[in-house]
Each structure stands twice: as C-alpha cells, then as structure tokens.
Amino acid sequence: MANAWQILEQNTLALTLVPIQIRELFFLDKAACDIYNQESGQYTLLLKKNSFVNKNVLKELITNHQTLLFVKENERRYIKEAQQENLREITRSLSMGDGLENGRKQMGLLTVNLGYLYEDPNDEGTLNLQYQSLRNLCSFLLHNQDLWRRLYTDYLKQKHHYVLSQPMIAAFFLLGIIKNTHALNEKDIETLFITSYLKDIGMSSIPIEKFNQEDLTEHEKQILAGHARQSVRILKGRVPLGPAYLQIIANHHMFSHLGMEKYQKPQEDDDDQLGETVLGFETMMVSVTDIVAAMISKRPYRSEKKVRESLELIKLLIADQYPQEFKCIVIYFKNLFAV
Ligand SMILES: [Fe+2]
After folding, report:
1. Do 158 and 260 share a domain, yes or no?
2. Whether residue 68 sits in one domain with residue 160
3. Which domain holds residue 62?
4. 179: CA distance to ligand 1 center in Å?
5. How far is the CA of 54 from the centre of ligand 1 (A)?
6. Nearest of 211, 13, 8 to residue 118 by alpha carbon
7. I need a labelling partner for 192 at 20 to 30 A (CA). Which of 13, 63, 73, 157 fits?
C-alpha cells in the first residue's frame, strides 16, 4: 500500500509532467533529462538524466505499445535542444562514413524535428534547420540511389506518426521519380523536394493527436481543407521558395475532387498574391507522389492500400496527359518495391 510520501510524490509528478512521444528519444546517446513512464496509473522513473539511452528498453516499450513517456515540463526543452543539435551534427557529416546509417539518421531526425516545427511553426531556428537539413538530404539522396530501397524500408520501421512521416515519404518518392525523368536539374529538384516536404505545414493548426480519429469537428475539417493556403502563409518570406513554388503548395491537392471533375481548377491568386503561373508538371508530380504516399501508408482508422492500387488511381489521373511521366512513376515504384 502506498505511503503518504509516495502519494505526495505521485501528485507532484502528475502536476509537473508533460507527455512526449518515445520517438523523441531516437538517436539520442543519453537522456537529456529525467524520463518517466506510466504503469497502472503510477509514474516511474525510466531513464535518469545523462543515463545511456537503452535502445532495447525503447524497443520493448514500442513493442508493448507504451509509446507515451513523460518529462518535467520545464525540462522538455533539453530534449528538443539535444535533437536539434543531433540533426545539425548529422547534417554536417552526412557524406562521411556509413551512408546508410547517416541517411537513416538524417531522415529520422528531420522527422522528429518536424514535430517541433508543427508545435511552433513560427520558430525561425527550427524552420531554418529543417530547410538546411533538407538541402543536404536531397543532395545525399541524389548521389546515393543504391541506398533508396534500404533507406525507405528502414524509415518505415521508425514508425513515426503519419502526419510527420507523410511529408518525408512523399518528398522521397518525388525526388526519385523526378531524378529518373531527367526533366529537372539538381537545383530545381532540390527546391521541389523542399516544396513537397513543407507543403503540409499548415496542418500544424490542428494538434497531431487529433489526426488519430477519423471524425474531426466541422471547425477542424475547415482548417484541414484550408491547410495548403495556411502552409503558404506560414512559409512565405521565411524560406527561399519563390512564388511559383508557393503556388505549387497552394495547389498541391489539385486532384482532391476526383469523381466530380478530373482536374480541380487551380486556386486563383487571392489575397496572397503569389504571382507567377502554376507549374503544371511540377504541381502534378508533387500531388501524385503525395497521393501514393498517403494511400500506401496505414492510418489509425484505415489499412494501407497496395502500391498497385495507388498506381491504378494515378493512371486514371494523369496517364492521358502525362504518359511518359506515368511510365517513369511505374518504373520507380517497381524498382523501389521490387515488384
Ligand atoms: Fe496536403
């Protein structure tokens, strides 16, 4: 039976602890602060500050679906700072040493840090770190095509929340397909890769946990429907993406009205005054890679579709207007999934 001291201690912890996802501890060598877990309603110290992060312990917790951990509210920033430094470090040394390990770490840390950006999309440091890290990752991927399949499967094994992993998967697919089409030079591929990755930042207006449920409130649905424009508002003037690329973001759901009309009319320039004309090919590629990435990924409320099914949909959407590009898409996925 708990004594008075234990009850008091538990009450104090309940007031000071905030939840973190277990994936925030990925790639850390040591605990940046005390880490707690909760069992049978009781908080227990799992990892003491500076203790070695035991990967087997984390693995076991994930296997047991105990992915919610806790830290003291005033100490959470230590984890964020450690993971941002971690990302800076791997970004600097991406091309040195074990390519597969570096790429896997870079993709994972970008995703963990994307979570921090979703929490505070106005944080300049976090946004700039994403941008610089994405540039390096793009260059790394373009020059390490032999690692694509392993990097993709290893990334899936990290099991990030789908809201955070979807941008990486969609941008990863986009890079691979565009490279194979030989339609763009490296600089343009890089800009499009970053455009694809950052296109959903407007979804940060809804807390990530809300995306675990299929039924959002009407207000949340409205925010979701307007996330592309919100992404533009968040990014405009803060990252070096020109008006044409912001237009791509604004129109990245160009196929959303499938069934009603084949191509949704691109959104007109409005108060944002984005200027230049929408780039048809680039917007189409950003859009279809996003569709495939979403379809073949599991959601809490639905199972994943087969790659073949997603390609059948893409065929309907683009094969008439972009037959060569559609062939490239099919070849890319056949190679990636070895089917
Ligand atoms: Fe989107």
Report:
1. yes
2. no
3. 12-75
4. 22
5. 36
6. 211
7. 157
Q: How far is the CA of 287 from the centre of ligand 1 (A)?
A: 9
Ligand 1 center from residue 251 Cα (angstroms): 9
- Does 264 score more than 50 pLDDT? no
Ligand 1 centre to CA of 304 (Å) is 18
User: Is residue 207 classed as helix, strand or coil in its secondary structure?
Assistant: coil
- 227 CA distance to ligand 1 middle (Å): 7
Q: Which band of pLDDT confidence, cut at 50, 70 and 90, is reported for residue 176?
A: very high
The structural domain count of the chain equals 2
| pLDDT for the residue numbered 65 | 77
Three-class DSSP category at 7: helix
Q: CA-CA distance, 284 to 254, in Å (whole number)?
A: 8
Contact between 71 and 119 (Cβ < 8 Å): no
Do 192 and 336 fall within a single domain? yes
Q: Which residue has the tokens 């604004």?
A: 250
Task: Give pLDDT, residue 302.
Answer: 86
CB atoms within 10 A of CB 278: 17
pLDDT tens-digit series, residues 48-69: 999 998 888 888 888 877 788 9
Measured in Å, residue 284 CA sits from the centre of ligand 1 at 13
This prediction's pTM: 0.89
- Of the candidates 183, 174, 139, which has an alpha carbon nearest to the alpha carbon of residue 329? 174
| Residues 234 and 319 occupy one common structural domain | yes
Domain stops at, among 48, 75, 102: 75
- Residue 179 Cα distances to 84, 267, 283, 326, angstroms: 29, 28, 16, 14
